[in-house]
Design brief:
The protein has two domains: 3-105 and 187-279, Rossmann fold; 115-172, no CATH class. The chain contains eight helices and 14 strands. Strands 7-10-11-4-12-13-1-14 form an eight-stranded mixed sheet, with helices on both faces. A four-stranded antiparallel sheet has the order 3-2-5-6, covered by helices on one side. The protein has a two-stranded antiparallel ribbon with strand order 8-9. The protein is 28% helix and 25% strand. With 281 residues, it is of the alpha/beta class. A hairpin with a 2-residue loop joins strand 5 (83-88) and strand 6. The protein has helices at residues 68-75, 98-104, 121-125, 139-152, 170-182, 200-215, 227-233, 256-265; strands spanning 7-8, 30-39, 42-52, 57-61, 83-88, 91-93, 106-109, 132-133, 136-137, 188-192, 219-223, 236-241, 244-250, 278-279.
Length: 281
């Protein structure tokens, strides 16, 4: 499927998200235009067009090798793009390093969480960004901020922010990683396989936290192979197939079989449940 054949149902008049609210039609927080990335002769991404709006959970799905990780790492500044544009709040930007992404308000929670088991929650949340008071670290200020951030995300299962990460469950670790991401005036949080290897209760906690991020007005990119989780949490579903974006559609207009078709073949013969679909947008 060529890029011009992508199924696009984003931001058309009358579209609604999974909660029945109108899909945002204004300027997206993040927009990728004809984004391309290659590694030698391998085309990892080919002219990807994607819009991500504030207050919306955008699920990014695709088979292994479809380009999900490369897309995330390009947005996060790990892999500079070889072609195309990245727009932030409508303005072209250059994201050449993770610090560039962070300065815009883009934070990424990777699958391995990037937490230090031997440090406590406060130390992890402020690692590399410690607050100081004179020549000493401001431990009280950091602890207060950590508690308030976790509380704002309704994380109630953590007994103390001074317990080591090694003592936390998988769901609690995810909560700490997400809290660390949203603490720094972030506007977009990227979550890479956040429910992988979690139990049922822990998965429910992470999905609820993801929805709360959107309710706070943050944009969320949610990457997952678990379609049950995707349909539970996503407002918009974007599908990558062999390095190309083949669809970006409100989740309420899709079913699981349609997503399976798009992920495995790049197209679907089933009718999209909206009158505002566009082919070749």
């Amino acid at each position: 499927m060529s890029d011009s054949d992508a199924i696009d149902a984003v931001g058309e008049d009358g579209d609604t998200d999974r909660r029945g609210r109108p899909v945002p039609t204004g300027v997206p927080l993040l927009e990728l235009r004809k984004l391309s990335k290659h590694f030698g002769a391998v085309e990892a991404l080919t002219e990807v067009d994607l819009q991500v709006h504030a207050g919306v959970v955008t699920a990014l799905v695709g088979d292994n090798g479809a380009g999900k990780s490369v897309t995330l790492k390009t947005i996060a500044g790990i892999h500079p793009p070889d072609g195309g544009l990245i727009l932030w709040e409508g303005r072209p930007v250059h994201i050449r390093a993770p610090k560039d992404a962070a300065s815009l308000g883009i934070e990424t929670v990777y699958q391995d969480l990037a937490l230090c088991n031997n440090l406590d929650i406060v130390q992890n949340m402020f690692l590399g960004r410690e607050r100081s008071r004179g020549i000493f670290m401001d431990e009280d200020s950091m602890e207060t901020a950590a508690v308030e951030t976790l509380k704002s995300l309704r994380t109630t299962t953590v007994k103390s922010v001074r317990q080591t990460v090694a003592s936390l469950s998988g769901g609690q670790r995810q909560a700490v990683a997400v809290a660390k991401a949203v603490m720094w005036n972030s506007k977009l949080v990227i979550m890479d396989e956040p429910t992988a290897a979690l139990g049922v209760a822990q998965t429910a906690m992470v999905l609820a936290m993801t929805r709360r991020l959107a309710e706070r007005g943050l944009a969320v990119i949610f990457v997952s192979h678990n379609f049950n989780d995707v349909f539970e949490v996503a407002d918009q579903i974007a599908v990558l197939y062999l390095g190309r974006l083949v669809a970006s559609i409100p989740a309420a207009h899709l079913d699981r079989q349609m997503v399976v078709d798009l992920v495995t073949t790049g197209t679907t013969t089933r009718a999209i449940a909206t009158s505002t679909n566009q082919i070749g947008a």
